[in-house]
UniProtKB/TrEMBL annotation:
Keywords: Signal
Record's protein name: Pimeloyl-ACP methyl ester carboxylesterase
Organism, as annotated: Ancylobacter vacuolatus
Sequence ranges assigned to domain AB hydrolase-1 in this UniProt record: 36-252
The keyword ATP-binding is assigned to this record: no
Positions of transmembrane segments: none
Domain of life of the organism encoding this protein: Bacteria
Length: 265
């Protein structure tokens, strides 16, 4: 081999050797958290998340809604776990109202990286939301006849009162439509004690609906403070805050997702 060729080969080999350690020891870039699962509350279904979904999808997130049956707390948690099983990586789990109890129990799933509570309950192990609600009664709790029950033990909001209590900041026609399309919830879902509390070990965020009449806003604040969750209060928002203020709700969800998974590309 000519001398100058040998020198060139040695120089190239040396350069490669110097480059290899840097490549081998380079820290991998943080993987963006793209998966978000949305869990609705009692008496409604996942379609109420549509505006929040649109904001999140427009910003590049992969979003799935759980359609829990509201037949029992165990059934609703199982429905949520089933959707979590389908996710392809770390996931942010979001719950509204009674959905907060569901994500608290289901959030111990290994794919769940964090939790967002939207005007939601967040009981501890051994607690249930019905008992906690009695410690800080809501307008709903003090409105006689607002919660109706079928002979076989399923509950619903009096359709005549639904627009005023659940969704006073939505267009009346829309609120009335939701009142007539309620998913009846087994009364037992509200009084089943939790066996797990994911907020004890996973990062959490909380949204307080400032004019909530279904859950006392002070109870929401108590839950989030106990969980060590950053709190966002949306003044004047009703219990249907995820529908009436979707941009603000989506912004909190996105902030949580980015803090867990780094900036998205």
């Amino acid at each position: 081999m000519p001398c100058h060729h040998a020198h060139a080969a040695l120089a190239l080999a040396s350069a490669l050797c110097l480059a290899l350690p840097a490549t081998a020891h380079a820290a991998p870039a943080a993987a963006p958290l793209r998966n978000i699962v949305l869990v609705h509350g009692a008496w409604v279904d996942g379609s109420g998340w549509k505006a929040v979904y649109d904001h999140l999808v427009a910003d590049g997130f992969h979003v799935t809604m759980v359609q829990e049956p509201e037949t029992s707390f165990a059934d609703d948690v199982a429905a949520t776990r089933r959707v979590l099983d389908l996710q392809d990586g770390p996931t942010l789990l979001v719950g509204h109202s009674y959905g907060g109890s569901i994500i608290t129990e289901a959030g111990v799933h290994p794919k769940v990286a964090g939790l967002v509570y939207v005007a939601a309950h967040a009981p501890d192990v051994g607690e249930d939301e019905a008992a906690l609600g009695r410690t800080m009664p809501s307008v709903l709790a003090m409105t006689a006849g607002a919660i109706q029950k079928t002979p076989d033990g399923f509950t619903y909001l009096d359709p005549a009162l639904f627009p005023r209590l659940f969704a006073p900041d939505l267009p009346v026609a829309r609120a009335e439509f939701e009142a007539r399309g309620q998913v009846l919830a087994a009364a037992s879902v509200f009084s089943t004690p939790l066996t797990a509390a994911a907020w004890q070990s996973k990062p959490s965020w909380g949204i307080v609906a400032g004019a909530d009449q279904i859950i006392n806003p002070e109870l929401e604040r108590f839950y989030y403070q106990r969980a060590g969750a950053p709190i966002t209060t949306i003044p004047g928002a009703s219990h249907s805050v995820y529908e009436s203020h979707p941009r603000e709700v989506a912004a909190v969800i996105e902030k949580a997702a980015r803090s867990l998974g780094g900036e998205m590309n």
